[in-house]
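Re: the request from the purification team.
They wanted to know what the chain is likely to look like in 3D before they choose a buffer screen. I agreed to run a prediction and write the result into the notebook, where they can find it.
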Amino acid sequence: MDVVASVELEVPFHDVDMMNICWHGHYIKYFEIARCAVLDKIDYNYIQMSESGYVWPVIDIRVRYAQPLRFGQRFKVTAKIVEWENRLKIDYLITDLASNKRLTKGYSVQVAVAVESQEMQFASPEILMTKLGVTEI
């Protein structure tokens, strides 16, 4: 099962430093934009998550910077759901739109927390499996 989504973006002026290089913290924002796109594909974005009785905080996020993004550069962020049984892990890849060169990669890990009890779930709730179309784990 592949659940993948890509978004195309351009580095705005307010995301760069004095050298016109994108500040490292903004990559997480770009990951989040792609994460929302991939969750929209399964109709289980943050509003639907909350309505189903769960919130999904990020508990781990990693970024590997290979090449910097620069002011005005057009790029693509691809998000792919790679784990879902006990946590939700999404891989990210940032590529330059002009050359298709890999610039940055990373991942995020989220876990389900029941809204009512505020307890972390040690297995992903059935609603996620339903949204993913997974019948067997």
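For the purification team: The first strand starts at residue 3 and ends at 10.
Please add any questions underneath this entry.
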